[in-house]
Amino acid sequence: MTRETLFNAVLGLGLFAFPLWAWWAEEPFMITLSTRVVILALAGVGLNLALGLGGLVSLGHAAFFGIGGYAMGILASHAQSYTPLMEFPFVIEGTKSMPVIWLVAVVASALAALVIGALSLRTSGVYFIMITLAFGQMLFYFAISWPAYGGEDGLSIYVRNSFPGLNTLDPIQFFLICYAILGAVLLLSARLAASPFGLALNAARQTSERVETVGIRPYRLRLTVFVISGMITGLAGALFADLNRFVSPSMLSWQTSGEIMVFVILGGVARLFGPVAGALLFILLEHVLGGLSEYWHIYLGLLLLGVVLFARGGVIGTLAGQGGKHG
């Protein structure tokens, strides 16, 4: 067992054990804080697939995060008000069922990622970054100007959505749902990276010309991973909105895209548990330093600068005694 694998196991078990202790100690806020870490880590895992495997620096992943959130908000609000979502050409009702909401969030995010990726991937480098950012901002301002679902004020959902056989209003049960999803997505990410698709994508990231000479189109590889990445981030958005029982345009903002990227960079780009370590560190700093000063982002910026300059492998790479995975 490598040091990185050992650290991943300790991190995963610790993230599972802490909320159980908080549940035993009757500290529901700590359980909610842990759930927030898990959901944000899930969003980071989505971006890490595009960034770590495909080398795609996207500043528009908040678009998928927000689409997932609004999918939850719209469906739940119509179920809450007993009004149909659509009556023509056939009636579509709202729903409070989490599995149905997740499916809608994933499909909507996949379609958005397909359109955004198909256009953005015709460019590269800084142009790709700016196009993804532009798409994210377009959706952000669309949400602000959408009064039917709260506009700038956002949309509140008064009761958390349901999951068959579980009480989602119980913080520990909702945490376990989110933790199970994160575990499944991490397993999918690991399998994907080790698959022929992942190996071809990694080769395309390093040298596109060599991949093209053997008949593989890098564009298709990158578009596929971009769509998968968007789907995972959209699912995280739906869970995040359910956690807060609120969705707002801020979920679509470029600041949210930046935060998701910070999780990946802090933990380690292309490291399997990198986004988990990054999200945990981010929430820890927010919780501890946020109580001392409203300008706690200064310390986060200094930490991020130190990671970029001296620990290119992020927290996990440093603790594993390895450098940056991609230099």
From TrEMBL:
Transmembrane feature ranges: 7-25, 37-57, 62-80, 100-119, 126-149, 172-201, 221-240, 260-285, 297-320
Keyword set, alphabetical order: Cell membrane, Membrane, Transmembrane, Transmembrane helix
Source organism superkingdom: Bacteria
Keyword hit for Ligase: no
UniProt-annotated location(s): Cell membrane
GO cellular component, one term: plasma membrane
Gene Ontology molecular function, alphabetical: branched-chain amino acid transmembrane transporter activity
Coiled coil: none
Membrane topology: Multi-pass membrane protein
InterPro entries: ABC_transp_permease (IPR001851), LivM-like (IPR043428)
A Pfam family it matches: BPD_transp_2
Protein name per the record: Amino acid/amide ABC transporter membrane protein 2, HAAT family
Species whose genome carries this gene: Ruegeria marina
Lineage: Bacteria, Pseudomonadati, Pseudomonadota, Alphaproteobacteria, Rhodobacterales
